[in-house]
Amino acid sequence: MGTGATRTDVVVVGAGPTGLALGIDLARRGVDALVVERGERLAPGSRGKGFQPRTMEVFEDLGVLDAVLAAGGTYPAAVVWRDGRKLGEHRMFDPVEEGEPHSRFTAPWMVPQWRTTRILYARLTELGGRVAFGREAAGVDQDADGVTVRFAAGAPVRARYAVAADGGRSALRRALGIGMTGETVDPDPVLVADVRVEGLSREFWHLFPPPEDARAPEGPEGAGGRAGSRRGFLAICPLAGTDDFQLVAQFPGADNLDPSLEGIRAVVGERTHLAPESVTEVGWSSDFRPRAALADRFRSGRVLLAGDAAHVHSPAGGQGLNTSVQDAYNLGWKLAAVLTGAAPEALLDTYEEERRPVAAHILALSTAIHRDQARRGAATRQLGLGYWESSLAVETRDAPGAVRAGDRVPDVQVDGVRLHASLAGPRWTLLAVGTRAPRTPEGVRVLSCPPVEPFGTGLYLIRPDGYVGWTGTGPEGLDAYAARVGAGVGR
Q1: Number of domains in the chain
Q2: How far apart are CA 78 and CA 217, in angstroms?
Q3: Do both 296 and 427 map to the same domain?
Q4: What stretch of H or E contains 472?
């Protein structure tokens, strides 16, 4: 390693939503972390544009919820067009059903990804975090004491741990030789662009199916469906909080797509009732082939994979970006606990143990939605995801109630206050429901309340990421569990 190497505790490669969210979580815990980004600035474009209720809860805890709410809006109803006629409206998301987990958020919230990254970047810098732009990762070396990330230009960065959050073509994952197992979800290439369009109402998500199918398919963010209904599909969705629309178009059998203004005008003129000149501007465009892939491992020594570097989704159902942010939320507290010496390094093994099965489950779900084999609803809201099979889920009660170890903590009202508001901040919390709270390790917050549904009674040690870690009817085993996971660490 050169003598000019930058030193830090954690180097996060990639300043997309995953890397920035992780940077925020580490910064608020006092961890010295550096986010590096190959681009000279934050990435433009809408890309992923929807946040599920569980991710909104994460954003609340990370301190960016108000900004996210101000920057976006609800999803509009979809309207299907044929030959300039409206064929009817189509609801893209199933309503909340009775029995779904308690949350103040009940539906997806739309924010163009370029706005999301700006919000996260502002929060990171507010907390004293750093992003180094123009740093393209070229390789990684590691030893017993740390990891060194090398770059195409400039000095390397030496850290105790590195996190690859550098997307589906992750340079770090490839350097480590970690493979990805997956499949092509749809052979047809897709063009996505942020455009200005005249003559379309911003009250609706406009769907233009191919001539042989006038239904409203599930597809990639409204552009897809069964194999026989994907020919030439086009969707134009108003991007909340902006004057732009997101255009999504499929091109069966095409090898080269034309992302220029003239190319997009031609598509709009051919597939809609609008004149080509109704598209007045193209602000950003990209193309891709929908695929689903899962990294064979999420950890190699001192390097961990997160976000698209670990799992690549079809955009159908808005699952990839949400799963990625939640990777960061799972990993942040564990890195902090290990770096401070409060927990053994083995704690980091639980990141892959917990997040890889979740990613595999969500990949199957988003693929099924793309192929019109499943609908958007309770599963896509991600409130029901948990870590029940994790080694960190310790249930000591003989008769567990409705809330058990591994569950996401429901956001119920306790003495007139939302429980999630009381749990806010990077700390462990012991919730004593209808029972006396025992002595707890220093730094563990204690909340006591009378019996409340769906908890019933008992002791619940709640992780910093809002999941139940340990439960019991008495304190037996609490101290041993707390020592194992670093509970009580103030950062």
Answers
A1: 3
A2: 11
A3: no
A4: strand 468-472
pTM greater than the 0.85 cutoff: yes
Please check whether residues 127 and 261 belong to one and the same domain: no
Contact in structure between 11 and 107 (CB atoms under 8 Å): no
pLDDT, position 315: 86
Q: What are phi and psi of 32, to 5 degrees?
A: -80, 110
Show Cβ contacts of residue 170 under 8 Å, excluding neighbours closer than 6 positions.
Answer: 13, 14, 164, 305, 308, 309
Q: Within 13 A of 112's CA, how many CA atoms are on the CB side?
A: 24
pLDDT digits (tens, 9 = 90+) for 375-422: 788 888 999 999 999 999 999 999 998 999 999 999 999 888 999 999
Residue 267 lies in a domain: yes
Q: What angle do CA 363, 364, 369 make, to 5 degrees?
A: 100
Q: What share of the chain is helix, strand, coil (3-state, %, to 5)?
A: 25, 25, 45
Instruction: Single out the residue of 453, 339, 349 nearest to residue 27, CA to CA.
Output: 339
Label the pairing between strands 190-197 and 245-250: antiparallel
> Is 439 exposed, middle or buried, given 0-12, 13-18 or 19+ CB atoms closer than 10 A?
exposed
The answer to whether the CB of 457 falls within 8 A of the CB of 441 is: no
How far is CA 134 from its chain centroid? 24
Tell whether 329 and 355 lie within a shared domain. Answer: yes
Whether 79 and 94 map to the same domain: the answer is: yes
Q: What does the block give as tokens for 95? A: 């309503």
Amino acid identity of 139?
A: G
Dump pLDDT digits (tens) for 205-235.
Answer: 999 998 865 444 444 455 444 333 345 899 9
Amino acid at 64: V
From CA 16, how far away is CA 45, in angstroms rounded?
Answer: 12
Dist CA 271 CA 278 (whole Å): 13
pLDDT band at 2 (very low <50, low <70, confident <90, very high): very low
Q: Burial, 266: exposed, middle or buried (Cβ in 10 Å; 0-12, 13-18, 19+)?
A: middle
Residue appearing with tokens 């994460």: 58
pLDDT at residue number 223: 46
Distance CA(483)–CA(240), nearest Å, equals: 46
Please tell me the distance from the alpha carbon of residue 309 to that of residue 302, in angstroms, as a whole number.
16
Per-residue DSSP letter, 107: S
CA–CA gap between residue 483 and residue 146 (Å, rounded): 24
Q: Where are the alpha helices (DSSP H) in 41-97?
A: 53-62, 65-71
Confirm if 418 and 464 have CB atoms less than 8 A apart.
Answer: no
Measured from the Cβ of residue 285, the count of other Cβ atoms closer than 10 Å reads 19
Q: What CATH number is attached to the domain comprising 241?
A: 3.30.9.10
The upper half-sphere exposure of residue 195, i.e. CA atoms within 13 Å in the direction of its Cβ, equals: 30
Q: What is the CA radius of gyration of the chain?
A: 23
